[in-house]
Amino acid sequence: EASADTGPRLPEGARPLYSPGTELRGSALPNLSTVFPRWSVPAIVWSMLAVLALIVGGAALSLAELTRVEEAARENGRETVRLIQATTAVRAGVLRAESAQRGLLLTGDEQYSQGYLDGLRIAREGLASLRGMVAADPTRESPDRLSGLVDRKFEELDRTVAYMHGGQEEAALALFASRQGDEIMAAISSE
Q1: Is 130 exposed, middle or buried (0-12, 13-18, 19+ CB in 10 A)?
Q2: 163 and 171 Cβ atoms separated by less than 8 Å
Q3: pTM as predicted
Q4: Which helix (H) or strand (E) holds 156?
Q5: Which of 2, 84, 112, 119 could form a disulfide with 104 if both were Cys (CB 3.0 to 4.6 A apart)?
Q6: Which of 14-18, 47-51, 135-139, 177-181 has the lowest mean pLDDT?
Q7: What is the tens place of the pLDDT at every residue in 122-159?
Q8: CB-CB neighbours of 126 under 10 Å
């Protein structure tokens, strides 16, 4: 039951702990030894501090673990980016060499030989990076299959370019028309 002007009513005989406009007196505060009869006030304070220390310590350990996991995830992400870059370099190198081979076959212009050599270099560098990653982390899949496919593709490209340099344009065009390189390139792309 509440009065409109004074707020909630106390039971008969009870006196309020605090009333507006009055000072707090020691006797108005509850005695903790009556609330916790077996505990002394310092023991209660030390217990609260111990609980607080456990909470803060647990939070600090959780934060440290979260930081460690976050750093491991970042490193894993960086490693994945390096893996993708190396694999992309291999494919780009093969494509560049293949494009130069076609330019040489169509025009007979030796300027395409440099593009072929650049593509070979780029693919070899990408394969070396992949091998380095496997050496650093043996749980990674070996690039041996991709390397074998790249070797087969460059053997096919080398034969075509050698025929062109040897004046055997018909043999070079026949090898190109056999589409052997297309199958190998499809396999490289799926790696």
Answers
A1: buried
A2: yes
A3: 0.61
A4: helix 144-165
A5: 112
A6: 14-18
A7: 999 999 998 888 888 878 788 888 889 899 999 998 89
A8: 23
The token pair at 138 is: 């043996």
Please give the structure tokens belonging to residue 174: 């026949």
Q: Which amino acid is at 188?
A: I
Structure tokens at 31: 């005695």
Cα distance between residue 164 and residue 101, in whole Å: 10
Number of H helices, E strands in the chain: 6, 2
What CA–CA distances, in Å, run from 65 to 55, 69, 93? 15, 6, 42
The first and second tokens of residue 59, run together, are 């939070």
The amino acid present at 93, given as its one-letter code, is: G
CA angle (175, 178, 182) in 5-degree steps? 105
